[in-house]
Amino acid sequence: MLVNNKKLLVGVGLRHPHFTDILTTPKQVDFVEVHSENFFGQGGAALSVLSQVREKYLVSLHSTSMGLGSMHDIPMAYLERLKSLTQTIDPFLMSEHACFTWGKQHGQTMHSGDLLPIAHTHLNLARMCEQVDKVQSFLGRELIIENVSAYVKFDGSYLSEAEFLTEICQRTGAKILLDINNIAVNSLNFEEGNIQQSVADYINVLPVERVAQIHLAGCQMPTLGQLVIDDHARPVSDEVWQGYQLAIERFGAVPTLIEWDNDLPQWSVLVDEARKARDIAQAVLHKESA
Amino acid sequence: MNTQCESESVINEQQCLLEAIWSDDPKTIAESGFDVEGIYIYRRNLLANAQRALSISFPTVFELLDSDASEHITQQFLKSSPPTQGDWAQWGAALASFIETTDVGYEYPYLADCAALDWHVHCALHGIDQIFQQSSLQLLGNCEPEHIFVKFNHNVKLLETKYPLTDIFQAHHDVDEQQRTISMNNAQKALAIAPKEQTVMIYRPEFQPKVTTLLMAGEDVFMRCLISGQSLANALNLVSESKHFSFENWLMKAIERNLIYTFKEN
Question: Which residues of A touch B1 (CB under 8 A)?
Fold first, then answer.
């Protein structure tokens, strides 16, 4: 479907157990997204499969370890591997998170093993812009930066995450990856838990032309009083679908991805979730173009 | 945030969060100034991610250990050798030597060698794709062995051990159930008798790495000599006394197994 000359692209996250499915079934999604680090090897079956997938599908590279907000520099070895993969796969999108991952232990660089939140301050903004500039220039590619779910808050934050991302994009030319489930998780963990309101407040701050991708995912809802864990192990929740509708109303035909990382379902379930995303987006876009 | 963290720079703000997540001291966590429940979520995520990563890279070791032991090893290994590369798949090079220092490594002395084997197999799985440069074969007819050198496929590794590693590996990973049972029996029998020095080879004919014990007399000495960069003549000299070593047989098998990348003249 073309809206304002933009085709609505809907994809799914591709994980190892679905390699055979994607290569042996008819094309049912527009693109796939993989975690860059899973293909950092110099060769082997996984990279060969991804190259075969690339012949049939657009591929988005989603990195999870770069830690653009880290005060410590991103090691060059990491960037070299990412660049090599980028040159092999020629992705149509490249994304990372607005978080930190690198630190020091006993004087040695260490990786946190997780996406850790940062305080939304001007100091962190400047640091993240510096890293985004460096990475974009090194890769020769535009980055798309994703909002993160968090389990701790920095009291020192005085910008909202949406303002923080907007400012990064304005200063560096990067784009925004809007993860609606992450907004939902943070809404439940740190705000009133009115997901619709949180999504609306968030997306209204973002400049329309800067949002380049949307992520949709599901997670287990908490028992009362506990923090929600963003486990990407469930179908997309009704609240997130409603948030998606709002996002499409505001941003139009933005490439949309179904993320599912744990307790993976059958490939057909992912394809059905992608179909649902397409149906919702098309309904909104039809209504707007009518 | 507590007063100490507030007064520090942003580097320390990030460092404070990292230290709270990586600390085993409940007091440090409680006094970090961060939401304690949140810190414990990050801690559980870290352990789960680490355990998943090691179980993928060290499938034999994780088959041999029960869940409590593997969780304990993971926790201890995280402390002694935290990830440094941003890719869990590259984490674990030091696990074999770490296991040697642990109680479980002392109790099951073959475990560290199993970890070394797993790591080499894991590296081979993601190693560079190399196929034999057939045209280099003509050097064997055109050059003296003194001037011929062998560059092995990047994914070939030799491992010296006193334990029946090939059988232990096959007992857990062979696709044929009957073969797994046979290998398990062989491994148990071999472990019950005195340890015997042997060389295990990891190689990758196509995409799936294979494991085998070098059985041909002199094969291990011959290969080590070539791998160390010595000429074919030197390697052949080492096995000249062996009645059972045949270079022709070895070469045929080596090509079939994709052990050689190329012959070089020097």
Answer: 154-156
> A156, B41: Cβ pair inside 8 Å?
no
CB < 8 Å to B17, chain A: 116, 152
CA angle A90, A183, A160 (to 5 degrees): 95
Measure the CA–CA gap between A64 and A99, rounded to whole angstroms: 10
- Domain ranges across chain B: 35-125, 134-162+197-265
Residues of chain A positioned with their CB less than 8 A from the CB of B8: none
**A:B CB pairs within 8 Å:** 128
**Using the 8-state DSSP alphabet, how is residue A218 labeled?**
B
The per-residue pLDDT for range A20-73, each reduced to its tens digit, is: 999 999 999 999 999 999 999 999 999 999 999 999 999 999 999 999 999 999
B112 CB-side CA count, 13 A: 17
Mutate to test the interface with A, among B9, B16, B18 (most CBs of A within 10 A): B18
- Which of A66, A71, A74 is closest, CB to CB, to B10? A71
Which run of H or E residues covers position A258? strand A256-258
| Mean pLDDT over the full length of chain B | 93
CB contact under 8 A, B10 and A119: yes
Q: Which of B1, B11, B14, B207 to mutate to test the interface with A (most CBs of A within 10 A)?
A: B14
Return the amino acid letter for A259: E
Instruction: Please report, for chain A, the start and end positions of each structural domain, with discontinuous segments joined by +.
Output: 2-289
Query: Is A210 in contact with A143 (CB distance < 8 Å)?
Result: no
Percent of chain A topping pLDDT 90 = 83
* Interchain CB distance below 8 Å, B127 and A151: no
Copy the structure tokens of residue A166.
């907007």
**CATH architecture, domain A2-289:** Alpha-Beta Barrel (3.20)
- Chain A partners within 8 Å of B45 (Cβ): 113-114, 229
Give per-residue pLDDT as tens, A81-137. Answer: 999 999 999 999 999 999 999 998 888 899 999 999 999 999 999 999 999 999 999
Q: How many CB atoms within 10 Å of residue B241?
A: 9
Q: Is the pLDDT of residue B2 over 60?
A: no
Q: What is the DSSP string of chain B?
A: --HHHHHS-HHHHHHHHHHHHH---HHHHHTTSS-HHHHHHHHHHHHHHHHHHHHHH-HHHHHHS-HHHHHHHHHHHHHHS---SS-GGG--TTHHHHHHTSHHHHHSTTHHHHHHHHHHHHHHHTSPP----GGGGGHHHHS-GGGEEEEEPTT-EEEEESS-HHHHHHHHH-S-HHHHHHHHHHHHHHHHS----EEEEEE-SSSS-EEEE--STTHHHHHHHHHTT--HHHHHHHTTT-SS--HHHHHHHHHHTT-EEEEEE-
Question: Does A222 score more than 80 pLDDT?
Answer: no
Of all residues in chain A, the one with the smallest CA distance to B43 is: A114
**Contacts A150 to B, Cβ<8 Å:** 38
